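User: I'm curious whether this sequence folds into something compact or stays loose and floppy. Could you predict its structure so I can see for myself?
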Amino acid sequence: MQATVRLSHPPSDAEIQSIEIENPSYRVERIGDALIMSPGTTGKTGNRNARLTALLVDWGDANGYECFDSNSRWKFPAEDAQLPDSVIPDSSLARVERWNAIPPDEQDRIIEFVPDIAVELLSKSDMSAVTRAKCERMSRLGVGYVLLLNPYAPDAQMIEEWGGRPADFPTNWDAVLKR
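Assistant: Here's the prediction. I'll summarize afterward.
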């Protein structure tokens, strides 16, 4: 089950890394004044996430984007917190020219700009309201297009979007959602 912890002061990047080392089965994000801790996914969600990433890698390669999986941490600008958000979308894309502008030795660090596209794939352990708020915040903080895929919602509510969908971006997510 996903947990949200409100703190009097947000943890630093080093403190987040320590929390992750002490809790290796959890993914830890700093979003505003909250620490979001999410457990590892189940087999079904892992399969969906792999399919999502594969679709986005193919699309990104054909359209000038680099694709990043759910292990990539992005540093978003501070909105209402003391420190910038430290966010891990389930999948994300950045234009190749933005990625290549980062010196190679810095590409192995936390990515210091917001992605152009971020995708969240709801799992059974996620709280939909928390994930929706995360998507809204990512959009507000500069991600051009944010997509939330919810395989547990009725068909008409499986997809939520914020921002402008890039030309030719996939719109059929059945290979991810209908598994």
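Summary: The first helix runs from residue 13 to 22. The chain has a mean pLDDT of 87.
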